[in-house]
Amino acid sequence: MEICIVGTGYVGLVTGACLAEIGHRVVCVDDDLEKIATLKQGRMPIFEPGLDNLVTRNRREGRLSFTTDLKEGIEAATVIFICVGTPPLEDGDADLSAVEQVARQIGELSSAYKLVVEKSTVPVQTGMWIEKTLKVYGGGKDDRFDVASNPEFLREGSAVEDFLHPDRIVVGVGHPRAERLLRDLYEPIVSGDFTCPTHGVCREAGPIPFVVTDIKSAELIKHASNSFLAMKISFINSVADLCELVGADVERVAEGMGLDRRIGRAFLNAGLGFGGFCFPKDLQAFVKIAEKCGYDFGLLREVDRINELRIVQAIKKLKDHLWILKEKVIGVWGLAFKPDTDDVRYSPALALIHRLLAEGVAVKAYDPKAMERVRQQLPSLLYCQDPYEVASGADALVVATEWKEFGDLDLPRVRTLMRRPLMLDGRNLFDPLKMKAMGFEYLGMGR
Ligand code: UDX
């Protein structure tokens, strides 16, 4: 099918590349001239495992192209995905101005039937507004457009994998036409009959669940799913606080809980809490949406409060052991909001570093992928070439992002490099008994 993707950020670029990979012809549009120029030179504006190969190969085979011209982009397309940013406003509401602008332009520029799909995370009832906008700016014809909601469940660091091998595909539609088009579009993924770039062979497992709902329910599934996952994390972080008070180990508790299939072990990792450009803003947006609809979602406000508290707890632990933080040297391993990504938006590591700098601490840091993104916003940080340089001369070391390479380091060497062998393991990456045996003063989160 002929597809147009509007917005080439994490969601748009992955969606475009993967739809091309399963055989569609995709034109990706963005008004960011530099981003499109980068993509046309075959370079990636973001780091996502496997994305560069996908883009390069599908461009070469003529199924994927990039342009800044929306009219050109939507000309041949039957299905148009809106993947523009919906960043948070001051009051937590989502900024939908980019979505409105694209909907208006699609209305004005379309001369044939289009299925307009909202993939960006949008508040419930946005689909209704897109329908109205298309009608008003599209000349008022009733059957010129359909709108659908097709929320993405992509995790950064595994977005390509999550797109090609999803747990489920959710589409919210208002007309059978829209459902038919989306079933055709996703058929290769549902049946698994495509040669996967990661796994090669076709899927052996059964078909992927294809969930069809009304538009509002589909919009709610995304916010409800993300908020539930965030709630799971804040729940285990509260249990971690209790574990410290009673002398239990939250990792053991999470293990015992997680074996219950109704609970599941994933997203029960205690630590510095959740960051990234999804959970924090989706949670606040969901609370705001509920409030605007007349419901006070107090449970989710508490999820947010517990998460904010993680950084306060970490600083307190450091003070309990260092007494005075001012002029101490503290090393931080990890800047990205989680491993396998270069994204530092809403990163707990940065929230902690801002607090340390405010206390007059000399902060050294290293991250395998995210340092370039931080240099501009944090010039007063000492950027190191490797984790050992971070440890050299440090009064304390904080594990802020659980990059796998940190788990493989020569820890006795790290210990000798440090001025004081104090480690705050913000992601419970290491084993407390082994660390103590190696002579570290080891502090975990909930252990
Ligand atoms: C999330 C959702 O997982 C994804 O489905 C949605 O489409 C977008 O938002 P993402 O934000 O990329 O994906 O990262 P995710 O892997 O969910 O982690 C989010 C944050 O939670 C990270 O800061 C991570 O460190 C933290 N986290 C995750 C925990 O603190 N504990 C856990 O057990 C799991």
TrEMBL record:
Cited SUPFAM superfamilies: 6-phosphogluconate dehydrogenase C-terminal domain-like, NAD(P)-binding Rossmann-fold domains, UDP-glucose/GDP-mannose dehydrogenase C-terminal domain
GO biological process, one term: polysaccharide biosynthetic process
Annotated binding of NAD(+), by residue: 30, 35, 86, 121, 156, 281, 345
Presence of keyword NAD: yes
EC assignment: 1.1.1.22
Chain ranges of the UDP-glucose/GDP-mannose dehydrogenase C-terminal domain: 331-432
Record keywords, A-Z: NAD, Oxidoreductase
Pathway where this protein functions: Nucleotide-sugar biosynthesis; UDP-alpha-D-glucuronate biosynthesis; UDP-alpha-D-glucuronate from UDP-alpha-D-glucose: step 1/1
Superkingdom: Bacteria
A single MF term (Gene Ontology): UDP-glucose 6-dehydrogenase activity
Similarity comment text for this entry: Belongs to the UDP-glucose/GDP-mannose dehydrogenase family.
Protein name stated in the entry: UDP-glucose 6-dehydrogenase
